[in-house]
Amino acid sequence: MRLPRPGVRPAARPAGRRAAAGRRRSRRVRRGAAGRPRRPGPRGVPARGGAGRPRRAAGVLPQARVRPARRPRGAAPAVRGRARPRRDGRGPRPAHRRPGGGDVAAAARRAAGLADVVRVAAGLGPRAGPRSRAGARHRRLHGRRDRRPARRGRHDAAGRRARPPRRPAPGVGVPRVTRPRERPADAPVRIEAAFRDAGVTGHLHAVDVDTGREVAVRAEEPVVLASVFKVPLLVAFHRQAAAGTLDPTERVTLRPQDRTSGPTGLSALLDEVAMSLRDLACLMITVSDNASADALLERVGLDAVNATAAALGLPGTVVEGGGRDLFDVLLADAGAASLGEVWARLDEPGMLGRLRALDPALTSRSTPRDMTRLLGLIWRDEAAPPPECAAMRRLFGLQVWPHRLSSGFPFDDVVVSGKTGTLPTIRNEVGVVEYPDGGRYAVAVFTRSPLPVAVLPEADAVIGAAARLAVESLRRTG
């Protein structure tokens, strides 16, 4: 703003503004005269406010006051040139040093700022000078981003140079972010945490079908197979079919009173049914039909199933009986008349401990490592001749239950093939996960819950979550 020359009276303000200013001044004078008491000034200095304040002569401009600014870096502190009066009337304040620089320092700062404005307007950029303390502290804390060495101080203990920004990959507009390679020991810890969060005790084994790399969590401990016993039964059936011991197209007639009870497949039907052995095998795997499994086991033989497991190198796998034998033991131990009554009485004290079907030492059992080995033999065409292994892979891929192993891989181009198993407090699934790049991973997850409930979504979902953690670890470390 341009100021008038000294001694020249400025142009008069409009009448409206003069009247408003007069009213404000009169209110201040009245408030100082009749309102709050005036503050006494030092000796020889009139009190502030009211009629004792001298008026400025007409046509005389007040002396320009420059607010003292902060002292520039490197400048010596200046002594305040004028003493201000105390508010309590004890005389003027003593002169003392303060980091301000007075009027000269403020004028220098303003001139420097104006020079910066002129240089920016001319396209020359601001001047190169000392930086602010806040900026220096930020650089000490976080390092410089312009590839210059960071200031060494107590916030930068290492005293290293800041890394330059990552260069983008050729043809890509954003920097390429690389994920650190996971250590093999990290996956079991995360899987254990997932089991713990779901409130279950879990056993897991995952192995790359082609390379043999693995992730294991209590993989050698025996577990209850439940309906997973149908996997070695399927292998024994196809081995006998390939050897010519039985005809897979042989038809079997099943009457309602001869079928094992269950919620799916032929177990839920009311009329007599005639089917081939290979169709019984299909229902046994795809919908876990108990009636079909018992009919097939009767034709193949229990000893043949255990002999097949031993021949394939599965020392921890033993099948004690079929579905009917398992249910009979459950009803006898619980003293119940139906499976529904068994589920209803699971919360009785000592009930779970009396059920032999839940004890790996007294029922059909295996280990997670045995099950992944068996699946790997099927997927590598080593459990039986290639046509029979292909037929078994097809049946595993047609399983209809998506709430366990498949829930961990919700992708259209990832194929999950498996077989579930369920008993009171027991939830299992074994299967193979196949990726579009050719990766094949056999996974076996066995869980036990302390809650005697039939529906427990957390226990079902953790099977897929744990399998996903194991498979992703194998894919990253490979």
TrEMBL record:
InterPro entries given in the database record: Beta-lactam/transpept-like, Beta-lactam_cat, Beta-lactam_class-A
Keywords from the UniProt entry: Hydrolase
Biased composition (Low complexity): 1-19, 57-66
Region (Disordered): 1-107, 125-184
Comp. bias regions, Basic residues: 20-41, 134-166
Claim: Iron is one of the keywords in the record: no
SUPFAM superfamilies with a match to the protein in the record: beta-lactamase/transpeptidase-like (SSF56601)
Domain Beta-lactamase class A catalytic: 204-447
GO BP, one annotated term: response to antibiotic
One Gene Ontology term of the molecular function aspect: beta-lactamase activity
Record has Manganese as a keyword: no
UniProt-recorded name of the protein: Serine hydrolase
